[in-house]
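Every protein is a chain of amino acids, and every chain bends into a shape of its own. The fold becomes a row of whole numbers, each drawn from a learned catalogue of backbone shapes. The protein below has been through that process, and both of its lines are reproduced in full.
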Amino acid sequence: MKKYLSVAFLLTASWSYAQQNTPNLFQQNREILENGTLVQKDSLADAVYSGVKNYKTEEEYRVAINMLRTLSQEEKMESVSKIAKKKFPKGSLTRDAFITDVFYNAEGSEAKEKAYNEVIKKWPVKKFSGEELTYDYVLANLAGAFAKEGDAEKATQYLGKMQERFWRGNGYLPVGQTLLAAGDTTAAAPLLKVAMEDAYYYISLPEEQKDNKARFASMGYASSMSAYIGILVNRGSYAEALDLIEKAMTVAPEQADGLSNVYYKSLMGTGRKLEAYNILSKLYAKGQFNVEDDLKKVYTDLNGSMKGYERFNAGLKNELTKSIQEHIKEMTVYKPAPSFELLNLQGEKVSLASLKGKVVVLDFWATWCQPCIRSFPGMQAAQEMYKDDSNVQFLFINTWERDKEYKKNVVSFIERNNYPFEVLYDDQKDPQTGQVMAAKFGVQGIPAKFIIDAEGNIRYFLTGSTPNVDYIKMEMKELIESAKRPYIQSTKS
């Protein structure tokens, strides 16, 4: 008890000081937030909460709410939020709560548009200088709703209201892709072109002018350009497409991989078959087997027949296998996996101990995590590959969800996409540390995958994702088959 009181006293003192230096509050308490015991975290939460009566500014409430959210103190966070919204009805906290609870949860474009108009009326943009991005998020979401319903005119209208150029592509690109998927290239093309040109503007800035915003905007260059050039290629405008691609290669050679698919098609369309063949060979050797029809065509055009193709194809696949084997060496880990017992979608308990004797593949994911979702078709294919192997178990660990209705959202997502996954909810906190399973495994970003051997040891850990189904299948096979074999300590110094 004395130890608990001592900790609480120190935290209260820290909080009192932090009120004078609010921006540094997270930094001052980082050690407790990241590595503290449950007692320390509870004491910090109590100290934060006790300071409510002294708050004078909305910023103090915002910091307190974020701290309590980080500490997983939902009740205290909600209590502080209610006080803040009552005290600052026209403030950004109340606005943000309305956007989250009403706008984002609205079903359909009509309901979203009504909520958006209420946001603009009660919290006009001009009164929140410097917070234009908040409104851009809303506009992009609203435009997306109209695009899904096929209303390109309304979608384009709301996109045109966005103000932050560095982020604009994040609204234009998905709307353009949605319209493109629906076959409306006329409406999609100008949106994709804007997204591409915005990204090009930032990516071509002198290095000394590239701040975080510029780097963020640059990230969308390959995606927007691929989509736009895809339209040009389908229209047969190969020369125009090729000109844009080679212009991109000059200012952003690191984007070459993302542009490979439209690049080889443009080269084929302009008769530069040998260059197209070289790119196709590299794509195939990286596991993009969906390009094989084009590879066969160019191979035949260059060689006069298909003679020797099978040997050539086997060589590319062998090259890929060796590349994956070298790559997974970098993912090697050997340590006992933390024990766990979590509930699945049916409310049944699933523990690591119950799976001893099996190779277990853990995939940490969330419904809001696009890279996680992007890899699911490949993970589904990998699971299907091992459906008859009773010694391999795939578990998809749903973690870090942000919505109170996360269980409902998870079930809906899995059913909507017809994924045959064994999903576990990562919502059981350790009574000593307050950590969920992801933290115990050292997960700092998702998607994160762990391959655990039959003895319960982590053998491989990998992060990131790819939409490449064939590559994921081959990579998972190498990882799983390796985990089936006895661990051999590396002799490298």
